[in-house]
């Protein structure tokens, strides 16, 4: 893999490929080494319906397209402006590796290959790329440079904890215009450069108002406090959220915030309120299996296997139902929608491959999805479909994702200021005083 200039050599861990099957094309003109151990591990992930299995299969297809004898001998070019890729067979553990790590496991075999590469090409920088922070720490303890896969990480961290902008000492005359006419032009406010669908609280000396910017008309519209199917907003953030959820022009919505802020409840209430406009309401969430075990290991039939993971969605549905008398038409409507599968709660793995037309699709716990998985889901959207992603960016269950690399944060970062997209970060917990106290102090 010799080169005239000192380009880098990247050694890839398995979890990078399972995160993004196109990763080998993201390293510019630098060379890539794929340890044979990684191919062995990928083989274990090829079977299954989860999105992680899809990544493994897709990477195998990508590799099959470029495979040849060169991939084992000197490497094969990935194309114009790209480096070369080579599969490296197993290498013996150095004395330092043997002394540090006595167990022969895949991670240590990958370390042995990274160690061998760094010593074989001392004039070139060798970097181990892994989503596993523990493996990166092990590599650094041996003097091997290691980094996270950063291609799809959020570039602006401010997007993660964005709050509603408040204007104090605002002109009461302009606020009065909001109430009298419903809106005012962006040009009426100096040095005002809002993003599409950005929300604001205007506070004057004698009055205040909630407002939202419409990029098409370049006007700021007043946001009124309205309920949806028995669920009333309890604060400004929830009011803005319902306003977005009830606007058919906003096709893609992200609701972020800690537990108890009402993200999923608001989305579900808005969906049921608008049930006549959509053929189906879908609620889904990714399944992060216990101890990384496939659902097939759990007892029972398919329904019994997934119900424990779907229970939080059923709980939110129960909250909405119990705002009405069991004999009321509103209560009976929800019962009928569930029975007729017009309101369907399902694991996210069952959605891939479908084309969803004229549906209201809510994806819960989206912070546990990779950027590629988010893209896969959004590209399922057919004509008339709206998608709502909810999640807590501080509560990530996947071992290989963090606040900057998860799919929900990535989507918010990339889609902001698009006219069909809106993001609300809910800060104030409304589940109970105890839940709010625990969220803040524990």
Please describe the biggest sheet, giving its number of strands, its sense, and whether it closes into a barrel: 6 strands, mixed
As a whole number of angstroms, the C-alpha radius of gyration is 25 Å
N- to C-terminal distance: 51 Å
Shape: elongated
Strand content: 15-25%
Pfam families: PhoH, PIN_4
Protein name: Phosphate starvation protein PhoH
Family: In the N-terminal section; belongs to the PINc/VapC protein family. Belongs to the PhoH family.
InterPro entries: P-loop_NTPase, PhoH, PhoH2-like, PIN-like_dom_sf, PIN_dom
Describe this structure in words.
- Helix content is 34%, strand content 18%.
- The strands form three sheets. Strands 3-4-2-1-5-6 form a six-stranded mixed β-sheet.
- Helix 8 runs parallel beside helix 9 (263-273), helix 9 crosses helix 10 (302-321) and helix 12 packs across helix 13.
- By secondary structure, it is an alpha/beta fold.
- Mean pLDDT is 86; it is low at 289-295.
- Strand 1, helix 1 (14-19) and strand 2 (31-35) form a beta-alpha-beta unit.
- It has helices spanning 14-19, 36-45, 51-66, 95-100, 106-120, 133-141, 172-181, 236-245, 263-273, 302-321, 329-339, 371-378, 407-415, 433-441; strands spanning 9-12, 31-35, 76-77, 84-88, 126-129, 145-147, 165-167, 183-185, 199-203, 208-214, 219-222, 252-257, 280-285, 343-347, 359-363, 386-391, 421-426.
- It contains 14 helices and 17 strands.
């Amino acid at each position: 893999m010799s080169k005239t200039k000192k380009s880098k050599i990247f050694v890839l861990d398995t979890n990078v490929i399972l995160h993004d099957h196109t990763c080998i094309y993201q390293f510019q003109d630098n060379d890539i080494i794929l340890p044979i151990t990684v191919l062995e591990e990928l083989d274990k992930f090829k079977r299954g319906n989860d999105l992680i299995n899809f990544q493994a299969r897709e990477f195998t297809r990508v590799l099959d397209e470029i495979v040849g004898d060169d991939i084992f001998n000197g490497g094969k070019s990935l194309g114009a402006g790209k480096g070369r890729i080579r599969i490296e067979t197993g290498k013996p553990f150095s004395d330092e590796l043997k002394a540090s790590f006595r167990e022969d496991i895949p991670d240590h075999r990958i370390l042995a290959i990274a160690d061998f590469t760094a010593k074989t090409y001392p004039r070139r920088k060798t970097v181990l790329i892994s989503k596993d922070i523990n493996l990166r720490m092990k590599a650094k303890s041996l003097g091997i440079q290691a980094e996270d896969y950063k291609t799809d990480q959020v570039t602006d961290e401010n997007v993660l904890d964005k709050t509603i902008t408040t204007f104090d000492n605002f002109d009461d005359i302009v606020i009065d215009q909001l109430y009298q006419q419903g809106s005012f032009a962006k040009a009426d406010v100096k040095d005002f450069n809002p993003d599409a669908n950005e929300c604001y609280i205007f506070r004057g000396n004698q009055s205040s108002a909630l407002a939202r910017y419409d990029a098409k008309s370049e006007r700021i519209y007043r946001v009124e406090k309205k309920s949806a199917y028995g669920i009333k907003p309890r604060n400004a953030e929830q009011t803005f959220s319902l306003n977005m959820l009830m606007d058919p022009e906003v096709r893609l919505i992200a609701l972020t915030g800690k537990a108890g802020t009402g993200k999923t409840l608001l989305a579900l209430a808005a969906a049921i309120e608008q049930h006549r406009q959509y053929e189906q309401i879908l609620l889904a969430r990714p399944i992060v299996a216990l101890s990384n075990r496939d659902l097939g290991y759990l007892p029972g039939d398919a329904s019994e296997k997934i119900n424990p993971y779907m229970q939080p969605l059923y709980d939110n549905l129960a909250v909405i139902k119990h705002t009405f008398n069991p004999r009321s038409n509103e209560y009976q409507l929800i019962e009928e929608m569930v029975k007729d599968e017009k309101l369907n709660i399902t694991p996210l793995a069952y959605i891939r491959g479908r084309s969803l037309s004229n549906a209201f699709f809510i994806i819960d716990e989206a912070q546990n999805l990779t950027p590629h998985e988010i893209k896969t889901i959004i590209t399922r959207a057919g004509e008339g479909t709206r998608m709502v992603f909810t999640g807590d960016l501080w509560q990530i269950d996947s071992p290989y994702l963090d606040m900057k690399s998860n799919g929900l944060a990535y989507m918010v970062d990339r889609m902001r200021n698009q006219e069909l997209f809106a993001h609300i970060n809910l800060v104030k917990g409304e589940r109970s005083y105890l839940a709010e106290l625990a969220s803040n102090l524990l």
